[in-house]
Write a structure and sequence with these properties.
This protein has 204 residues and is α+β, with helices and mostly antiparallel strands. The protein has helices at residues 2-27, 80-95, 116-124, 137-147, 189-202, and strands at 37-38, 50-52, 57-58, 67-73, 102-108, 131-134, 151-154, 163-166, 169-173, 179-184. It is built from five helices and ten strands; from the N terminus they run H-E-E-E-E-H-E-H-E-H-E-E-E-E-H. Strand 4, helix 2 and strand 5 form a beta-alpha-beta unit.
């Protein structure tokens, strides 16, 4: 009799533990899966204290409620930069009605030639809602360091024909302004669009 009661107690306890584990697993939030590199929780690239091509000071939190995609480049870049910005414009189209919840940001690593007027015209080639940011050489250096971005001036045949070597890739922020994904250059619009959709779904 004692043995039977003991076995019954063990069985009930096992069921209770199993049920708790089951409900606990159900209540845990499923971790998002990204096509790009998941950098959730990164302690860098937390803000972009620069000025846009309209002369307005900007910060990441200005775009709360939107997924923000940040790319560093320069307007006279022959291939990488226009390709990346065109893909970002494609992502906005892929999103359809949610396209307005995507904010494209282009940060120039060539503020000497990329004046606000030049940047505004450049953004118009891709999407008028995209913003280009610039700062003084000192401000750019500080932001690039925070974002772990490499850039270097490469002299040309004349003083104004130089080019810029720079990191190629995009930083993706969720609607709460948190850095979540690094999208490598060449990943394509579909991969980036998938990650943007995932972050928009998280943000409601």
């Amino acid at each position: 009799m004692l043995k039977r009661n003991a076995l019954k107690t063990i069985a009930v306890s096992a069921l209770s533990i199993g049920a708790a584990g089951l409900f606990g697993a159900c209540s845990e939030k499923k971790k998002a899966e990204f096509r790009g590199v998941d950098i959730t929780g990164a302690d860098y690239a937390r803000d972009l204290p620069l000025t846009d091509h309209n002369g307005q000071a900007r910060h990441i939190q200005d775009f709360a409620g939107k997924v923000v995609v940040v790319f560093f480049g320069f307007t006279q870049c022959p291939d990488v930069c226009p390709t990346s910005m065109q893909e970002l414009a494609e992502v906005k189209q892929i999103l359809g009605k949610d396209g307005d919840r995507l904010q494209g940001i282009f940060v120039t690593v060539d503020p000497e030639r990329d004046t606000p007027e030049v940047l505004k015209a450049y953004m118009a080639n891709f999407d008028p809602s995209f913003l280009a940011l610039r700062g003084s050489p000192e401000q750019l250096a500080a932001v690039a360091k925070d974002f772990k971005i490499y850039y270097k001036k490469v002299d040309g045949k004349t003083p104004t024909s130089y080019t810029m070597d720079h990191s190629a890739g995009s930083y993706v922020y969720d609607p709460a302004g948190r850095l979540r994904v690094y999208n490598r250059y060449g990943s394509g619009a579909q991969a980036l669009a998938a990650d943007v959709k995932t972050l928009l779904a998280e943000g409601g």
